[in-house]
Amino acid sequence: MYMAAGDGTGIIIPVWQELVVGIIAFGLLCFVLMKFVFPRMEEMYQKRVDAIEGGLRRAEEAQNEANALLEQYRQQLAEARTEAAGIRDEARAEAIAIKDDILTEARTESDRIIAAGRDSLAASRQQLLTELRGEVGSIAVDLAGRIVGESLADEARRAGTVDRFLAELDEGRSADAAGAR
Amino acid sequence: MTGAPVIRAEGFPPGIENFNYRDWIPALPDHFLTTITFSVFLAVGILICFFLVSYRNPQLVPTKKQWIAESIYGFVRDGIARDIVGPEGIRFAPYFTTLFCFIALTNVFAIVPFIQISPNAHIAFPAVLGILSWLIYNVVGIRKHGLWGYVKMNSVPSGTPIALYPIIIPIEFVSNLILRPITLSVRLFANMFAGHMILLVFILGGVALIEAGGWFMAASPLAFIMAIVMTFFEFFIQLLQAYVFVLLTAVYVQGSLAEEH
Q1: Within 13 Å, how many C-alpha atoms sit on residue B192's CB side?
Q2: Is A52 at the interface with chain B, CB within 8 A?
Q3: SS3 A7
């Protein structure tokens, strides 16, 4: 190997050349590593810490947000339920009211129809009576003329006779009706 | 070990001459380009290339290479700088990591084939590192406490009776402010020197036993097995010494940053 004969110089007593080499070499190493490598490692550590802590914080935020949303949904659901119940009650009440209205209206209507029917019945009866009265008069006059065989010239007397007769008829019927009751 | 048998026999027992390396190019000034200095530059080159390549394009989710580089840095940063010095020690982590990587790699060169010598087996390199550590912890301490406060803090342990000052002050001053770089560098140097010597003893001893022939030859496998065992042991020691060096530097920095103790 590359050995030289010699004394112990350079082993226990430093030779200046080796000191210079040591200072230069180690200085170079220190310069490069301490300037270009280890500060970047510290930077990377810091970044990693940030990444992890940021991730945790983000996860926590997301969790909180989810919880808040859930709470909100629950509240909304409860509100909706209450509202639905309210609507149902209202609808029920309304339905009852409508039913009552309809019933009342129907009753009124039926009353009205019945009254109208009654009125028209009375009117037609009155009409019939009037018509009948006239007709009965003329028929009776005709009949009486034929029976009597003579023309009753006196109009006034003739009308008086008919009226009197009819009044008697009316009276007799009223008395009949009173007796029937 | 290659070479003629005669040279092999001459190699045993190993001595300090085994630590002197010839200049590769005799025209250059002495000692500037030997296996020792070459391996220092090689270590610097390997480390720069490794870290620059593995951290060329760092990702939030690391790639395998990036993960290895970060693990090394994280080991020193969290295991030494933060644990020993405290939160304010993080700013020393880049230097500590560089120091750790450099010492570990240059130490491991002692068992790398074709190099098989750690530059740290020459006192010059541990001395440079030790002096750097000394400068750092002193500058940090003087900046924090002022020159007088710092010297006082390191010379007079609190609670010392005044009667003991004449003894305690010189001892504390010398051990805290003068001897520390020497003990740092000598510890590293001696471990690497001794490790190399142990490996030489077993390997050259095995060769010498074969050379001796006869019954001695039968004992040579034992020497080679021991050489292999010691190689593993050396690997452990090499990493341990790198760790110890950085750890002690961190302890000194922590002492300088601490309040009165």
Answers
A1: 35
A2: no
A3: coil
- Tens-place pLDDT, residues A90-129: 999 999 999 999 999 999 999 999 999 999 999 988 988 8
Is the pLDDT assigned to residue A10 strictly greater than 80?
A: no
Q: Where are the beta strands (DSSP E) in B141-251?
A: none
Taking an 8 Å cut-off on Cβ atoms, the answer to whether A21 and B30 are in contact is no
CA distance A162 to A142: 12
Give pLDDT tens digits for B70-102: 999 999 999 999 999 999 889 999 999 999 999
A22 and B123 within 8 Å at the Cβ level: the answer is no
Q: What is the complex's ipTM, to 2 decimals?
A: 0.86
d(CA A73, CA A69): 6
Q: Please give the backbone phi and psi of residue B31, each rounded to the nearest 5 degrees, phi first.
A: 70, -5
Closest CA to B121 of B132, B133, B131, B108: B108
Per-residue model confidence as pLDDT tens digits over A146-180: 776 655 556 666 677 778 878 888 887 777 766 66
The nearest alpha carbon in chain A to B2 belongs to A1
Cα separation, B154 vs B177, in Å, equals 7
Residue A51 touches chain B, beta carbons under 8 Å: yes
Cα A110 from chain centroid (whole Å)? 34
Say whether residue B94 is in contact with chain A using an 8 A CB cutoff. yes
B41 touches chain A (CB under 8 A): yes
Mutation target vs A (from B17, B30, B186; most A CBs, 10 A cutoff): B17
Residue B202: CA count within 13 A, CB half-sphere: 17
Q: pTM higher than 0.90 for the full model?
A: no
Judge whether B245 is closer than 8 Å to chain A, CB to CB: no
